[in-house]
Structure formats: structure tokens, C-alpha cells
Design goal:
single chain; putative 2-phosphosulfolactate phosphatase; seven-stranded mixed β-sheet; 11 helices; 11 strands; 39% helix; globular; binds D-malate
């Protein structure tokens, strides 16, 4: 199994993903939020790269049938129901609804992967379910990290490392590219104190300064939402 890791979606060429399962990671916070919404029973999630598309698609739904969610610069978009905090996507709020979500980097990375063989959404909260799924699939994979403000982000790389370590624990010896090797090394050095490893990094600090420590706590927990969301034809479903 070959594994290539991309620091942001801007580094990805069509040929990199065409024949691979793509795993998209935006642990802070888009994939954590989408996974939480699906785990809490929403019907489907439609990620869009821009605000206008989310609003336009919402016009196809009954007033009570959808939730508009997302952020720009980590803050809720004006007129939207919810921001990009996983804690807002409770069962009471999302069950049986369609969630339309747009975020600064995460939904851009997801929609970038649309032409892949298959697209899986990952975070720490579903990491074991994802590596079990990938191990069983046996295909080469491309891991696309969402990054932060268009740049490499340490939080996503830690999840990439956890995925690689999980596959190795299952007896798979993946052929890693350089960023895959670095991701695994950083994860092994950080796994016992994820908060400590990230405390001075950009995205962690932004969310902390906004008073979102609860989101950081939830996003860095392991396996609290053990599902495998697949994104296909513009829609993510569990
Ligand atoms: C993003 O897509 O850039 C993030 O999910 C930002 C955030 O923390 O809301």
C-alpha cells in the first residue's frame, strides 16, 4: 500500500488522486464537525467550498429540512444557523436533516477530492474506524490535510500520523512518502499529550483565544464517533 500525504489541497494534482482512496483530514474542525453531525443522525452533509453555493443549494430544501453551517476565520457566517463547532451539531439539532456546510479550508479540501476513487473523511474522533476501513480496502491512499489559512497545519499531520500508525499496527507496511514518514514520527512523539504538542500552533491558538477550548477537547479525543463518512457525488454520508 502506497501512502502519499499532502499538507494542503493546493498541492494535489488530479493524477495524485484518480486511482486512490483519498482521506481528507481537517481535525480543527471541519471533518470533526461533519463526522459529529453524521454520527448524531443527520441525513447527509453537503460540503461546499464557498458561501454562495451553500445558500443556493439550501433553496432546494424545506425550511425545517436543512441546517446551514460553517465559518470564515473560525467565526459563524452571518445568517447561518450554526458555526463550525462540533458541539453545536447535537442529535436534537441535526437528526434527519441535511447539513450544508462551508469552511475556510476543510470543505475546500473535501470538494477538491471529488475525482478520487473514493473519499473518506477522518479525524481523531473516528480514527480507528477509518484505519480499519482502509486496511480492509487495501488500496493505495492519498491523505489530504486541510491546513490552516492555506498553510501546513500540525494538527492535521498528527491525524495522518495516527492513521499510518494504526495501519502498521494491523500488520500493514505502507510505502510512505517523506511527509508520511514525518507525520508518523511526529504522532509517535506527541500521542501521549496531543494538547501539549499543539498548544503553541496557529490553529490551536486561534480557537483557544476565541474561547473554544471545549472544541479543542472534543476534536482531540479518540474514537468518540466511530463511523466512516464517504463523500461521493457532492454528498457525505455515514
Ligand atoms: C477550516 O475549514 O479552515 C476550519 O475548519 C476552521 C475552523 O476551525 O473553523
Amino acid at each position: 500500500m502506497k501512502i502519499s500525504v499532502y499538507p494542503t489541497s493546493d498541492y494535489v494534482e488530479d493524477r495524485d488522486i484518480k486511482d486512490r482512496i483519498v482521506v481528507v483530514i481537517d481535525v480543527l474542525r471541519a471533518t470533526s464537525t461533519i463526522i459529529t453531525a453524521l454520527y448524531n443522525g443527520c441525513k447527509e452533509v453537503i460540503p461546499t467550498a464557498d458561501i454562495e453555493s451553500a445558500v443556493n443549494i439550501s433553496k432546494n430544501y424545506e425550511r425545517d429540512g436543512f441546517i446551514l453551517g460553517g465559518e470564515r476565520n473560525a467565526v459563524k457566517i452571518e445568517g447561518f444557523h450554526l458555526s463550525n463547532s462540533p458541539r453545536e451539531y447535537s442529535r436534537e439539532r441535526v437528526e434527519n436533516k441535511t447539513v450544508l456546510i462551508t469552511t475556510t479550508n476543510g470543505t475546500k479540501a473535501i470538494t477538491r477530492a471529488v475525482d478520487a476513487k473514493e473519499v473518506v473523511l477522518a479525524s481523531f474522533i473516528n480514527i480507528s474506524a477509518v484505519y480499519e476501513y482502509i486496511a480492509a480496502a487495501g488500496s493505495d491512499i492519498a491523505i489530504i490535510c486541510a491546513g490552516t489559512m492555506g498553510k501546513f497545519s500540525a494538527d492535521d499531520i498528527l491525524v495522518a500520523g495516527a492513521l499510518i500508525k494504526g495501519l502498521e499496527d494491523k500488520g500493514i507496511s505502507p510505502e510512505l512518502d517523506d511527509l508520511g514518514m514525518v507525520a508518523k514520527r511526529i504522532y509517535l512523539n506527541s500521542k501521549d499529550d496531543l494538547h501539549g504538542a499543539l498548544s503553541e500552533t496557529l490553529h490551536y491558538s486561534i480557537l483557544k483565544d476565541l474561547g473554544l477550548q471545549g472544541d479543542l477537547d472534543d476534536c482531540l479525543k479518540l474514537d468518540t464517533a466511530p463511523i466512516v463518512p464517504i463523500y461521493s457525488d457532492g454528498v457525505a454520508r455515514a
